[in-house]
From TrEMBL:
Keywords: Cell membrane, Membrane, Transmembrane, Transmembrane helix. It is found in: Cell membrane. This is Integral membrane bound transporter domain-containing protein. PANTHER family: MULTIDRUG RESISTANCE PROTEIN MDTO, P-HYDROXYBENZOIC ACID EFFLUX PUMP SUBUNIT-RELATED. The keyword Manganese does not apply. Residues 387-509 form the Integral membrane bound transporter domain. It is a multi-pass membrane protein. It comes from the Bacteria. Belongs to the YccS/YhfK family. The chain crosses the membrane at residues 26-46, 78-99, 105-122, 134-150, 375-393, 399-417, 447-463, 468-485, 497-515.
Length: 699
């Protein structure tokens, strides 16, 4: 049981390194409690105002300010909370003015304006990331304006409670008690480096064998690298932290895989020779130290010469022995090339956040054309239908229908369908759990209330990673909270489930029937753009570490966008199969293709440079041109919807030219071997994308 608990903790930390999101959830809990307490204090000095109503308004304002501000640096979060707080204060102030002007019909007018607020909020989602969060927050928070005017308007206290909630969120979130994204990154980077160094020792047969050294597998490195990626995403671009970027970590993993694969393919005699070679052992030890610390260590022969150890380890173990078979020679050259890459990638003098240049997204027509008019129309029509159904059938909480519509509607039909399934499943689970827990705690209302409060951090932890779980937690705490605070019978709260189903159905119908935003065309366009970006990257010159990593980062960003669209596309094409197999080989192939394109380009740069310096025979240049054309033809074939291309004899010619044209030049030999290896990988990736029906027909 202790081991299972440890595994759960490790899994949570790898998806939420340092507990950064968990701490934001704790801050949300403290914000809600603090806002409720302060609102009750204010209510005690204001006769005639409901303390419960003011507490709900303050908690809603503070909670939304914190929930819709992503984890970032302290400065960025302060700015985000202030901007959202000002927006909600203006929203609440508008609600107070409308309620005052409307008089006795305030409730009806505010309910009608809710649809307008929803349409405006959804329209603003096209303006950028902040407005994607702020627009949805506006649509949700107008509900609290409507509810606060039931039984009498709070008047000026509406915007005052918005300010109170914002200030509470600001103090709690940006106070001294919060984990540092930079320190968390350094800890995670150190864990990655240690695991990489240990894995290299294992691959090379240099493991110590002590009981304290746990075995490391490549999937362990992948999990740690995902943790590193999360940390890097939380660092702001202006951060000047230097270390191992996620892109460098990916390349290290690939290099380590090459070492393991090449060593496994060596003959038994070759493996024994390497294990007994002092030069090989020293090279491995220096690489292990470099991976672990990011710093070099000088060779024993260099200590008295004032050298710092920043030069790569010598490849004296790579002997040009005539007795060595061509196969063993090929695999040893792969190891030597991987060692060279590991030395360069393990340095600690590279920026963690790579500068990708400015992305000017200013479209013609300005902000007006950026507004999401189609999504706004879908939201307005769905909200109007949902609210009408709630009134027509006299549902206990008709606003839950409209609230569900706000939550499930997304920018594409596939995303809406996915969110609908998650919302219904999560709500059902949360309601059922509340029904099961209630009998056991019927006589302990204080325990129920504590359970509700403790559940709040879980919402933040799972909100971005698994909305179904987050939705279940929200439903649980809402049902338990209403039953405890307002005394509603638990049996009546079943209505939350069918209200949610009605709202989700109306929202999905609007997304499906009213100018549906299907991702088929956009997916095909993104796929074509991505393949062309890979092909253009392949054509460009490489060889500079910073430029290569930046190009890899750009391709990975494009790949992530493509994968997200592909998921929506699969859901639209085959909803049920997409839920049972939400991940596809396509996701892996798209990411891996970018990595091998950059690696091939680096190897080609090495070959080109060494060919010129060594004045090798001209046949090498012609063969390199043939290999480039082979890859160009394969990219064109995938884009045009044609079958796999073949060039008979190219691989044989390449292997034959390697010993004849490159003997005596280690850099040329290793680059030559790497080019062939990575070209194979690119062709296999493209062939895999073809089998996955990446593009059904020409792009």
């Amino acid at each position: 049981m202790l081991q299972a608990a440890s595994d759960i903790k490790t899994s949570l930390l790898r998806t939420d390194p340092g507990g950064l999101r968990l701490m934001r959830g704790v801050h949300l809990m403290l914000t809600v409690l603090g806002a409720v307490f302060l609102a009750n204090v204010v209510a005690s000095f204001v006769p005639g105002q409901s303390a419960f109503k003011l507490a709900v308004l303050a908690a809603a304002s503070g909670g939304h300010c914190l929930m819709f501000t992503p984890v970032s640096t302290r400065k960025a979060e302060v700015l985000g909370i202030l901007k959202l707080g000002v927006l909600l204060t203006l929203l609440f102030a508008l609600g107070a003015v409308v309620a005052e002007v409307s008089g006795k019909s305030a409730s009806t007018v505010l309910q009608g304006l809710w649809i307008a607020a929803i349409m405006l909020g959804f329209a603003m989602q096209g303006l950028g990331p902040f407005w994607q969060r702020a627009g949805r927050s506006m649509a949700i928070c107008w509900l609290f304006v409507v509810l606060s005017n039931v039984g009498g308007s709070p008047g000026l206290w509406l915007p005052v409670m918005a300010v109170l909630g914002m200030v509470t969120a600001l103090v709690v979130r940006t106070g001294p008690w919060r984990p540092s994204t930079y320190r968390t990154y350094l800890r995670v980077e150190a864990a990655n480096r240690q695991a990489m160094a240990t894995y290299l020792r294992q691959l090379s047969g240099r493991a110590t064998g002590s009981s304290g050294d746990a075995a490391v597998r490549i999937r362990d490195l992948a999990k740690l690298r995902m943790e590193l990626q999360v940390c890097a995403d939380l660092l702001r671009p202006e951060g000047e932290l230097q270390g191992m970027s996620p892109e460098a970590a990916i390349m290290v993993e690939l290099a380590l895989e090459v070492v393991g694969d090449a060593r496994a393919q060596l003959s038994r005699d070759a493996r024994i020779r390497l294990a007994q070679d002092d030069g090989f052992r020293r090279a491995v030890d220096r690489l292990v130290h470099r991976l672990d610390t990011g710093e070099g260590v000088p060779e024993e022969s260099d200590i008295g010469e004032g050298k710092t150890g920043e030069s790569a380890p010598a490849a004296s173990w790579l002997q040009a022995d005539m007795a060595v078979t061509a196969h063993d020679r090929f695999q040893e050259l792969r190891i030597a090339q991987a060692f060279k890459r590991l030395w360069l990638l393990a340095a600690k003098d590279q920026p963690v956040r790579l500068s990708l240049g400015t992305d000017d997204d200013s479209r013609e027509g300005g902000w007006l054309r950026k507004l999401s008019w189609r999504l706004s129309l879908q939201a307005g029509v769905a909200a109007g239908i949902g609210f009408s159904l709630g009134l027509a059938f006299d549902l206990n909480h008709a606003y839950w229908v409209t609230l569900t519509i706000i939550i499930v509607l997304s920018n594409s039909l596939g995303a809406t369908l996915l969110r609908t399934a998650q919302r219904i499943g999560g709500t059902a689970g949360g309601v059922v759990l509340a029904m099961l827990v209630d009998p056991a705690l019927a006589e302990f209302p204080s325990v129920r209330l504590v359970l509700v409060v403790v559940a709040i951090p879980g919402v933040i932890v799972f909100l971005d990673r698994n909305y179904a779980i987050a939705s279940g937690i929200i439903s649980f705490l809402v049902v338990m909270g209403l039953q405890t605070l307002e005394g509603l019978p638990i049996d009546e709260l079943w209505s939350r489930l069918y209200d949610t189903m009605i709202g989700a159905g109306v929202g999905l119908a609007a997304a499906w029937l009213l100018f549906p935003n299907r991702t088929g065309a956009s997916f095909k366009g993104l796929a074509s753009d991505y393949l062309n970006a890979c092909r253009n990257c392949l054509r460009a010159e490489g060889g500079k570490a910073d430029t290569d990593l930046q190009d890899l980062a750009r391709l990975r960003t494009a790949a992530s966008t493509l994968i997200a669209t592909a998921r929506s596309y699969r859901i639209e094409q085959a909803p049920w199969s997409s839920f049972t197999r939400s991940a596809s080989d396509l996701n892996v192939l798209v990411i891996v293709l970018a990595q091998y394109v950059v690696l091939y380009r680096e190897a080609r740069s090495d070959v080109t440079r060494e060919t010129v310096e060594a004045q090798a025979r001209s046949g090498i240049e012609a063969l390199v041109a043939r290999m480039d054309k082979r890859l160009e033809d394969e990219f064109s074939a995938v884009l045009d919807g044609r079958p796999r291309q073949t060039v008979p004899g190219l691989e044989d010619d390449w292997m034959t030219a390697m010993p004849e044209g490159a003997t005596g030049n280690l850099a040329l030999e290793t680059g030559w071997v790497a080019m062939l290896y990575h070209a194979r990988k690119i062709v296999r990736c493209l062939d895999g994308l073809r089998k996955e029906k990446f593009l059904s027909g020409p792009a």
